[in-house]
Amino acid sequence: MIPASTFRGQRVALFGLGGSGLATAKSLVAGGAELTAWDDNPAQVEAASKAGIPVGDLRDMDWASVGTLVLAPGVPLTHPKPHWTVDLATSHGVEIIGDIEIFVRERRAQAPGSRFIAITGTNGKSTTTALIAHLISHSGRDAQLGGNIGTAVLTLAPPAAERVHVVECSSYQIDLAPSLDPSAGLLLNLTPDHLDRHGSMQHYADVKTRLVARSDVAIVGVDDEWCRAIAEKLESRAFKVIRISKDHVLEEGLFAQGSMIRQGKAGMLHDLADLAGIATLRGAHNAQNAAAAIAACQAVGLNEEEIRNGLAAFPGLKHRMQPVARRGRVVFVNDSKATNAEAAAPALQSFEPIYWIAGGLPKEGGIAALERFFPRIAKAYLIGEAAAGFAATIGAHAPFEISGTLDNAVASAARDAAGDAAGMPAVLLSPACASFDQYRNFEVRGDAYVSLVSGLDDIEMLVDIENTGEHHG
């Protein structure tokens, strides 16, 4: 745990007592803050109280005495409208921050020279975060992995000269971290997402930009217009910018060319790593993730041999294009983390023929953007609230059935794939939807898929079904 010592003796209000919120409350108590915590869910308030957290309805507080309001990342700051605690804090001139900001202040106080890598982007950030932490750990260094990837940042070991903190940051967390200042900040890409929480694409992009705008080194993907503009703006202000791309040759920066990650520098091209044969880094999207991870690791002192050795040993990220089982020629793939169409595209591009399980709580735009991949789909199995809408989109291009639930979809897809004599059929869960209509989060959905697959006859599991894993937007 990282005790929030920079808040010692200060009056702090905290709202949101889920996983990261409870961890933050414990950190504040350990650091000596005068804390009052609350949540709209009575069960979470009771659990926090039993854990020794001082609780009380924040409506009853003397806000004139409060110095800071700490919000859990899932609590609305601006859109669709500010949470009632935000209104109270704003009306009394109280600063509003989150757990990442507390970490930033502790790092500044305890080990200001320690290395801190922060990663954001619409898609690919969890794989990139996990890959960076793996490369650092594989080299024998102390990598602390946390943030939006599922481990609350304040539960990690404290900042220290010998440690590297590798932290995935959602837009919600960045919005609550005004002094975020990593050694290396990564912005991978930007596509429309979470606009209900940010109001517009411009505001969403502005929030994401904050992560790289105060970084010692800004590593920016330049394969979309938003990020290209951000890279140019930062460079015009004399920031150190390293561009990455999966689509373009870069005279300056890291880029993918086939399976090779290459670096353009001073008019010369240099081969850094070959991803051929690394199954966990399959697909063009993973080439971008690898390029970003390599740039970050170079920034904190890893050499090329350490990076290449680490890449070859990368075990992959759970719920992201994760091969979980085989039955004959059929591979079963868990891509539950693909919660929008853009995130589902890499898996659809990487397998053929595909028996595609898709659906859930639909995101804006549905799956129309995936039409170029529909010829690769042998059949679609549609679940959740999105089923009817997805059927209308895919119906003219590929066979489908309305399966309704995941168990029905797995059974049907496994049966149909077993009879396919072409290529290497893949039963692919890549929902292109949020999970919340049927599952608490995408991890629970992915674990349910793995469990259902494990119950099929003659199945060879490639993962440990006992080792199954909270994550927000």
TrEMBL record:
Gene Ontology MF terms: ATP binding; tetrahydrofolylpolyglutamate synthase activity; UDP-N-acetylmuramoylalanine-D-glutamate ligase activity
This protein's UniProt keywords: ATP-binding, Cell cycle, Cell division, Cell shape, Cell wall biogenesis/degradation, Cytoplasm, Ligase, Nucleotide-binding, Peptidoglycan synthesis
Binding residue positions for ATP: 121-127
CC terms in the record's Gene Ontology section: cytoplasm
InterPro entries for this protein: Folylpolyglutamate_synth_CS (IPR018109), Mur-like_cat_sf (IPR036565), Mur_ligase_C_dom_sf (IPR036615), Mur_ligase_cen (IPR013221), MurD (IPR005762)
GO biological process: cell division; cell wall organization; peptidoglycan biosynthetic process; regulation of cell shape
Top-level enzyme category: ligase
The protein's annotated pathway: Cell wall biogenesis; peptidoglycan biosynthesis
Catalytic activity: UDP-N-acetyl-alpha-D-muramoyl-L-alanine + D-glutamate + ATP = UDP-N-acetyl-alpha-D-muramoyl-L-alanyl-D-glutamate + ADP + phosphate + H(+)
Principal subcellular localization: cytoplasm
Subcellular location: Cytoplasm
Mur ligase central domain residues: 119-297
EC annotation from Swiss-Prot or TrEMBL: 6.3.2.9
Domain of life: Bacteria
PANTHER family to which the protein is assigned, alphabetical: UDP-N-ACETYLMURAMOYLALANINE--D-GLUTAMATE LIGASE (PTHR43692)
Family to which this protein belongs: Belongs to the MurCDEF family.
Role of this protein: Cell wall formation. Catalyzes the addition of glutamate to the nucleotide precursor UDP-N-acetylmuramoyl-L-alanine (UMA).
Protein name (record): UDP-N-acetylmuramoylalanine--D-glutamate ligase
